[in-house]
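Before a computer can learn anything about folding, someone has to put a protein's shape into writing. The outcome of that step, for a single protein, is printed below:
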Amino acid sequence: MEYLTVHDFVWINNAITGKVNPYDYFALEACMAAQYRYGNSHDVPVQAAELLGKLLNVNPFEDGNLRTTLISVLSFLNVNGYATTQGEAELAQTIRAVATGSLTAPDAIKAISAPASESLSTTLALRRLITLECNTHAAALQHLADGD
């Protein structure tokens, strides 16, 4: 299993918003911990749902929480063997639906991902993957920018 660190979340937020945003360190650390499933830390969809729900529940950053959540969750899923199954507009709608409470985080993970047919190269650094996710999902990030 690969996990994002607190520093990764800050880096993602900075890359997405183009600025250094104030954040609540303790809230962000709680988000980071949501990725782990102590005792059974091999259930990627469940762990991704916990991460998704926590990031949207605590909104650790002053700006860019929806976009940071999208890229963080997709990166976590992708690095752990899951592929994105929704288009850009659907991804943005799914994230907003979880944020407003009209969709549960587990249902969102089922909607946006599926086991990948091919694994990522183990030589791909997490930061390179995050950059790839940002570039690949630029349209979804644009959809989420309003009101974020």
